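Q: What structure does this chain adopt?
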Amino acid sequence: MNVYLAEFVGTSMLVLLGNGVVANVVLARTKSHQAGWIVVTVGWALGVALAVYTVGRISGAHLNPAVTVALASTGTFDWLLVPGYIAAQIGGGFFGAVLVYLAFLAHWSETTDRDGILACFCTSPAIRRFGPAFITEFIGTFVLVFGVLAIGRIALGAEAADEAWTAAVGTYFGPLLIGLLVLSIGISLGGPTGYAINPARDLGPRLAHAVLPIPGKRDSDWAYVWVPVAAPILGGIAAAQVFALLGL
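A:
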């Protein structure tokens, strides 16, 4: 499996399990309907961990354009690979959202909450103020990327990506710790925006929401899309630069 296919598969799995838990909680007449925020955050955390376990040894399991661009900004990842990684991640996000749609096929027509249906695919702010939402996503992604670098003990001058990955996984606890990091972000910082912290996790599924024949769906809220795309990328770059500056 090449690195681009690995990123596609990993991001698909991340979105299938992450957006799947949202659908489980939000959609009418599922057996976990209204199970609550803790269930959502745990589901996302486990989805991230499993996705990283699955493809980390192949592509490094970026699964997130913010991670890819952040690493490239410090010289630890080849800029020539960045467009392919991002395309694969967004494509994987789209495909994972299609799988969520199919997995819950009987429940879309039973659900009258159009905002809830949208939440099964992409994020939106609890309070519709884009400036504060941007700050939330920036901070959340900063914590994500800084935490990933810290967990992996990645030396931002490493010569080879596989060396960095070997340092990151060690005894294969790395992916689980990254899942716990995502859990912490969701519980502590996720409420204002739904913590996209990943442009592919938001944009790919938002595109799927726009094209899939979902009964009674609302518009895909394209006015908001720049926030979960731009803020994570800038937050990720800032985290990588601070990590390097501190010499961690």
